[in-house]
Amino acid sequence: MKNIEVSKIIDPIPASDGAGVKLKRSIGVEPNYFDPFLMLDEFGSENSEDYIAGFPAHPHRGIETVTYMLAGEFEHKDSAGGKGRMTAGDVQWMKTGSGIIHSEMPAMKEGKLHGFQLWINMPAKLKMSKPEYIYIDKYKMSIHKDENKKITVIAGKFEKAEGPIKGHNIEPTYFDVELKKEKEFNFRLLSTHNTFIYSIYGEIKIGGKNHSNKVLVGDVDEAIMRGAVGVSCQVNIGSKKESAMLERMGHITTEAYLNDVPVLGMIYVRGENVNIMKNDPTNGYAHAARIAFELGCDTAKTVWTGDKDSFSKICRAAPIPLLVAGGPSTGNSEDILTMVRESIEAGGSGVCMGRQIFAHQNVTAISKAIGMIVHDNATVKEAMDKYSL
Fold first, then answer.
1. In a domain, 277, yes or no
2. Is residue 4 one of the residues assigned to a domain?
3. Domain tally, the chain
4. Order of strands across the sheet with 174-179?
5. Which terminal residue of the chain, N or C, has fewer Cβ atoms less than 10 Å from its own Cβ?
6. Burial label, 115 (beta-carbon count in 10 A; 0-12, 13-18, 19+)
7. Span 101-143, pLDDT tens digits
8. What's the CA gap between 172 and 155, in Å, rounded?
């Protein structure tokens, strides 16, 4: 099977549509559309002000819209008599044909709303066809699941799982793929089809290449407006988009400085063009920490190098507080706390952890034990005994 080549990486941009719904638009950003895909929007927020106005009645003609809900509820009505109430996991596929007027309104006043809408161009011969509304309940969706992945098949077929959309004029394939870390997803694509992949969470390698660009999803003014007391920004040193990410971080730190808002810099050494000097025990992370400092970050997140000597070189490279990342979840309390203790002894100032804490069997105990080491200078044994780990 030949690996596909990525022809373009698109940075989603903040946009607004309907009666003021905030979203991120990727396909449709540039003038030359990716036939037959016209537009792809991701809408998602826990703030009802970002979506409550919805998409009041408006017309469409000659296209298909596919809406996929991940969280929240939307209610559909159209001029052809179609009605539907979408909840998390549901899909609606609307063929507008000769023309239709429809509305998509949130069926909720608060809480998280998250989903996608894709616009697909219809062939010329079908643009005057009768409009059609297809509602697909999540329980009618076919799912492939094994130890490495979960594939929800909306359209097309993956192994024995076949999507509910059949007999379509362009034989579309639409999968929602959940993939475990470092595992592979392989699928044979038709050579006649254009294909895109949208990464919702995490990072992916496509055709053996790591596509590690990070996009800006807000600015300092918005963070302040929402009540934030600080902001963070990530750069991947070695990515093809490294220079653009560095420039974005520079803008963020300047805005933050003018507004007296601290910045957490997350600078990782990852990407296609990583070039680490020989005999560098920090694997490039001393350089990364220095970049965070020189770009104006108030503190920075860095990785544990495995021992105090090499980690201390990172700490000496940047005169700002450095926070150690947790890395992949292990669930071993002693290993986690030993890493925290040794990072502090080597010059670190604290932790910036996610999976090591929220995937732990006792979230409260491990959190308090880490805090005891960082803030009270406790030993690993003292922290483990105190919280029965």
1. yes
2. no
3. 2
4. 142-145, 149-155, 174-179
5. N
6. buried
7. 999 999 988 888 899 999 988 888 888 999 989 898 888 888 9
8. 6
